[in-house]
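> forwarded from #structure-qc
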């Protein structure tokens, strides 16, 4: 698999790995400061495993990986089905079945499914690139996306399902979907979306769980829910504000009093509040800049490669990172309703961490390919990409 491949290692983006490791280091520091040393140690082990995934995965030809996308797709569906409909699924008394118990471990299949979906859509769009603007192909690709997304949605994991839909939207747009289809789709979906939003905030609605509805209602009327659903976001904003410019850690504050301790899940969904209080505005800017740099490098790799499948993979991974980091930080700052999305490379959780490392590994392999292949293409190079 490797011996016949010639990689241009000069194009191996060490800077992406450095940026990722910097984010991971800040995450471990915040876990330690938040008072859970055991979590910080387990996260360190996950980072070591992730680094191994990157270094090994970056040397495996992504064309070889993409040969088995149909198998990955069915594995993804089976795993998501097991989470919701078998005794292996775990809900932790929250009513949300998002974890799968395997022996003594628990994994979150939806994190891996995001990467699988990127690979599946990359191969699909490459095979149908000359027919992409046919309504039948557009609907087919939508169905391919919606099957695993729907299984994630009923777990119930609305935030991860939104990640999958965003990935699909960005990838199909960059694949060359015509503005006509985009316009018609938006013209239909906009009023439908507005109608659904009105419906889900009504008493007795059936689309969302009570908890999901309360998160939307609390965002619209935060004062009414200040002591219940909005409690975490209010204290997250207070923690962020208390960090000021330099943060308490950088100013040498050794006291145990921290406002982020009032936030229930500051190790995961609200880890940005820990970053802000400990490292201040400077730390927040650094974190956002590191995410922007990683996404920029992924897009640059997509632009430089002349292989359409590789372009799609790099765009899909960058879309995933953009959406998750933007939504997580927006939730922490109360700009969006509370969701359960982790901050990539920083939030505690092995499933999310390793899946993000895997996505980076595949993008790095796209970047070092010297001989570009069109194993799934019937029409040669597609010049639509980046022409909008």
């Amino acid at each position: 698999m490797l011996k016949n491949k010639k990689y241009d290692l000069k194009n191996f983006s060490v800077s992406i790995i450095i940026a990722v490791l910097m984010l991971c280091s800040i995450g471990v520091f915040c876990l330690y400061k938040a008072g859970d040393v055991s979590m910080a140690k387990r996260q360190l082990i996950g980072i070591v495993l992730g680094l191994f995934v990157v270094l090994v995965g970056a040397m495996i030809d992504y064309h070889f990986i993409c040969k088995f996308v149909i198998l990955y797709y069915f594995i993804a569906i089976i795993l998501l089905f097991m989470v919701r409909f078998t005794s292996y699924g775990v809900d932790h008394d929250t009513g949300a079945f998002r974890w799968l118990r395997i022996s003594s471990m628990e994994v979150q299949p939806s994190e891996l499914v995001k990467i699988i979906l990127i690979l599946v859509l990359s191969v699909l769009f490459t095979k149908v690139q000359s027919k992409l603007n046919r309504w039948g192909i557009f609907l087919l690709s939508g169905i391919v996306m919606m099957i695993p997304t729907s299984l994630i949605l009923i777990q119930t994991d609305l935030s991860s399902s939104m990640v999958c839909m965003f990935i699909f939207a960005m990838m199909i747009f960059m694949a060359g979907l015509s503005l006509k289809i985009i316009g018609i789709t938006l013209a239909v979906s906009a009023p439908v979306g507005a109608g659904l939003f009105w419906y889900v905030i009504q008493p007795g609605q059936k689309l969302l769980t009570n908890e999901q509805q309360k998160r939307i209602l609390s965002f619209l009327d935060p004062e009414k829910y200040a002591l219940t659903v909005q409690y975490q976001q209010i204290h997250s904003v207070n923690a962020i504000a208390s960090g000021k410019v330099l943060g308490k850690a950088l100013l040498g504050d050794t006291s145990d009093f921290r406002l982020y301790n009032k936030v229930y899940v500051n190790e995961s969904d609200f880890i940005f509040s820990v970053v802000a209080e400990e490292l201040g505005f400077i730390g927040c800017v650094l974190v956002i800049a590191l995410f922007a740099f990683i996404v920029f490098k992924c897009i640059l790799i997509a632009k430089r490669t002349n292989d359409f499948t590789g372009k799609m993979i790099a765009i899909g991974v960058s879309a995933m990172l953009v959406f998750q980091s933007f939504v997580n930080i927006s939730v922490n700052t109360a700009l969006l309703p509370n969701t359960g999305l982790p901050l990539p490379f920083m939030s505690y959780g092995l499933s999310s961490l390793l899946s993000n490392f895997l996505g980076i590994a595949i993008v790095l392999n796209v970047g070092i390919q010297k001989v570009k292949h069109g194993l799934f293409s019937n029409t040669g190079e597609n010049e639509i990409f980046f022409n909008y």
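QC bot note: The mean pLDDT is 89. The radius of gyration is 21 Å.
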